[in-house]
Amino acid sequence: MKRVFGMCLVVLLAGGAPQGLPGSRESKSIRLADRTQMHGDALAPAPDLDQRLAKWRSAKMKFDSTPLSPQERRLVTKLVEASQYLERIFWRQSDSEGWELLKSLHGSKKAQDLKLRRLLVINGCR
């Protein structure tokens, strides 16, 4: 298990961490003009955004790491990191413009932006 997991991480990280991840310096450097352009007619949110979101319910999934050893906790952390890289790779390959839109919405507190971000994450694309 450890060997397979380690090999997966080597493959994922061989090219270095993807740039422009939400929370990174690059994503914070997106100018307001870029964000406004992305919200132009071509990428305007759906008028029925609230109805679309009403179909989905949030569910909290609790995770109790207390029975795990320190080594197992580190392994779980690495698995979470690996899954985040896989998700970013998927976004870039399937909908690069949607990925840019998702990054531009990061950190926004506007209700419409939060709704749009949630729907993008649920769908995995625009």
Would you give an account of this structure?
This protein has helices at residues 2-13, 25-28, 32-38, 49-54, 70-94, 96-105, 111-123. The protein is built from seven helices and no strands. Helix 5 crosses helix 6. The longest helix is centred in the middle third of the chain and has 25 residues, at 70-94. The protein has a domain at 69-126. The model is unreliable at 1-42 (pLDDT under 50). It has 126 residues and is an all-alpha fold.
Comma- or semicolon-separated keywords:
mainly alpha; extended; 126 residues; disordered N terminus; 7 helices
Quick overview of this protein structure:
This protein is mostly helical and 126 residues long. Helices cover 61% and strands 0% of the residues.
CA radius of gyration is 17 Å
Strands, total number: 0
Give the SSE string.
HHHHHHH
Question: First CA to last CA: what distance?
Answer: 36 Å
Low-confidence region ranges: 1-42
Tell me the structural class: mainly alpha
- Please give the count of helices: 7
Q: How much of the sequence is in beta strands?
A: under 5%
